[in-house]
Amino acid sequence: MNEMARIWIVEDNDDDYDALIYGLQSADVPRFRVVRSSDGVGCRAELARMNAEGGRSGDLPNLILLDLKLPDVSGHQLVEELRSDPVMKSVPIIIVSSAGSVVDVATAYREGANSYVRKPMNLEGFQDMARKLRDFWLGCATLPPMAPE
Amino acid sequence: MIRPGLIWLPIAAFTAFVGVATWSTARLDDVQNSTSRLTEAFLRVERAVGYVGFIHHFKNAVLRPAETRYLELAEAELAQAEGALADLEATMDGLGLDVNVGHFRDTLAAYGAMLPVIEEMGRAGASPQEIDVRVRIPDEAAAFVLAELEATARSQIDRRNSTQKRFLLLLIVGAGGLTIVMAGLTIETTWRRQKSVRRLTSVLDRIETTVSVVGPDGRMDFYNKAFEDEMARRGVTLGTKVAAQDLAVTLAPQLCHSDLAAEVLGEQNPAHAVRDVAYRDGTVFESQIYVLPDGARLFVRRNVTEQRQEEARAERQQRQLMEELAASNRELENFAHAASHDLQEPLRGIAINAGFLEREPLTEKGQQRVKRMVALCAREQAMIDALLNLARLRDTDGDGAIAHPAETILLIREDMAGTLEKQNGKLLLETRLPPVRMREARVHSLFLNLIENGFKYNTSETPVVAAGFRESVTVAGEELANVFYVRDNGIGIAPEHQDGIWKMFSRVDNSDKAPPGTGVGLAFVARIISAYGGAIRLVSEPGRGSTFYMTLPLADGPAASQETAAEPTGSGDADE
């Protein structure tokens, strides 16, 4: 973990966002930068910006945390768009959603999400989840190289 | 409409009678002939012998000895008489008469012997008186003998002829009688048959089912009134021996399907077939075809229009109900999912904010209140989860699977090892448990809820929960077969609370002192059991523990019937 972790959080609910940040902080993720989009419009704007910069600035995320229930667009739609984006297609997407129906889970994986996590019900839960994400995605797993060839 | 049956019998008898009568008449003629033949033979003899024959010449020879021609004539007549006698004898022999002509022949011979005497005396010049004295033979001797002979022969032939006539008459009368008896029998049988046929026909004419028979020649042999009426309604007039094919051709345009001809003509020919015949006007007949032993086909048709309409209506109604039910189930499930999600959303917000608040510097009182908030959130969350699980219960995937409750209970014991150690508790498996036809997850929920309750509501120093199986148990007078049980030595349930425990979110003690719980556990258990057509009964007494008895679908037995899936009931006593 020499480099700084960059995490893109797509989440409309402020409480959940705060809990997520609190969880990441208290889980001792040493250095990370967060980009937040709170709806589909924001998400697409961010995607366009990252594409425009072509990753030169080196601030492409190496992990995306995505909520399925957004005010203007379905998270499933965003997964599809991210997966067909030349810059973003290989960045791991972790769905963090309160919806837990079998259909949602199956759809998300089919569309290319890398994992699906039920949104915890309290602060301790968020801490626990963040610890596990850190251990696996920022510890155990080897992520794709940052800059596009 | 009925084919002739026994008419050949009197015809045969009459033919036989005619034959016998003709033969007998011919025989009678023969008999008549024989009599006249006999008479002629006698006449010939009489003529040759009598006063125009031999006797005449013989007398003349005696009276005129000088004229020798009378002797010659007498001699010739005698020879002729002998010939006629031989004829007569042959005739009588031929007729089978037993008459001796010896005496008559002797008489003729005696006459014959006299002829040379007359000749000699005549030549010697003797007078007729002298000759007459010498050759005196009574004139009538021959006539008498012949008459006697004829009388004998006649009486014999009359006797014989009358016997034959009697026999022949008897034959004719017998044959005639037989013919009459045969005819009578035939008439009687035919009459009786027709009577039973008439009765059968009148019975068949009274029923609403149409009955018709097509003979092996393809023509209508029989039909009842209902059939006739039905055909009349269809514009078909039934004459005698209508060809079934003509009928089929006339009816075909009125039918919804055109293969009636094949049916009528028996092109498909199973011994018995049932099918519906539908007319364009909406009438439907259930048609049964039986092939009779002689190859005729019996058609029995019942008007099932209303029945079919009713069935179709009922089916439509049922399908609609099922669709509505499925839709309502889907709606309910969607609602449960949505509701649980929508309920969870703000609750999570409250929990997160309470969590943040907990980490702020607060007064001790404030800390307590926030902690209470967090705990309440957790409980609310558990209740929503339980509700969601309950809503998902109807999901029946994998219900044909076989689960082993004993293995499930051992698994639960492993999972609860920590709790058991802390409480100094024991989870016992008292008997073998038969496998059940249920989803393993359901069996797990069932036993887990009951076992957890057994330890949770238990103040004993050594809490014990035991599970087992009995082939029969009587609970409050009710016989239960193949029963699983879970028994604990916990606090027990008072009779007044026993009916309420099965209700959603109901808890006997809902105070803060009570162990944590949502009050859905037993409702969940009851719903699982009723979904599998089983029953659950409670036997409990405060301070003496509780026993839950359950019937579940056994893997190798008939599933518990729906009738036993009554509302769960509680009871104070049980005879085990």
Can you walk through the features of this model?
- The complex is a heterodimer of chains A (149) and B (576).
- Chain A is an alpha/beta fold and 149 residues long.
- Helices cover 43% and strands 17% of the residues of chain A.
- Chain A has 5 helices and 5 strands, in the order E-H-E-H-E-H-E-H-E-H.
- Chain A has a 5-stranded parallel sheet with strand order 2-1-3-4-5, with helices on both faces.
- In chain A, strand 3, helix 3 and strand 4 form a beta-alpha-beta unit.
- The relative contact order of chain A is 0.19.
- By secondary structure, chain B is α+β, with helices and mostly antiparallel strands.
- In chain B, 57% of the residues lie in helices and 13% in strands.
- Chain B has 16 helices and 12 strands.
- In chain B, the strands form 2 sheets. In chain B, strands 6, 7, 8, 9, 10, 11 and 12 form a 7-stranded mixed sheet that branches.
- In chain B, helix 1 (8-49) runs antiparallel to helix 6 (141-206), helix 12 packs across helix 14 (440-456) and helix 14 (440-456) runs antiparallel to helix 16.
- Chain B is rod-shaped and about 215 Å long.
- The chains are: A alpha/beta (149), B alpha+beta (576).
- The A-B interface holds A 13, 15-16, 18-19, 22, 98-99, 101, 119-124, 126 and B 337, 341, 344-345, 347-349, 351-356, 358-359, 374, 377-378, 381.
Please identify the structural class of chain B as seen in this structure.
alpha+beta
Give the topology string of chain B: H per helix, E per strand: HHHHHHEEHHHEEEHHHHEHEEHHEEEE
First-residue to last-residue Cα separation of chain B:
76 Å
Percent strand of chain B equals 5-15%
Summarize model confidence as the mean pLDDT of chain B.
82
Q: Give the biggest beta sheet of chain A.
A: 5 strands, parallel
Count of alpha and pi helical runs of chain B: 16
Major sheet of chain A: order of its strands? 2-1-3-4-5
How does the overall form of chain B come out from the CA principal axes?
Answer: rod-shaped
User: What separation lies between the terminal Cα atoms of chain A?
Assistant: 22 Å
Largest sheet of chain B: 7 strands, mixed
Please give the radius of gyration of chain B in angstroms.
63 Å
Count of individual helical segments of chain A = 5
Shape of chain A: globular
The quaternary organization reads as heterodimer
Number of E-type strands of chain B: 12
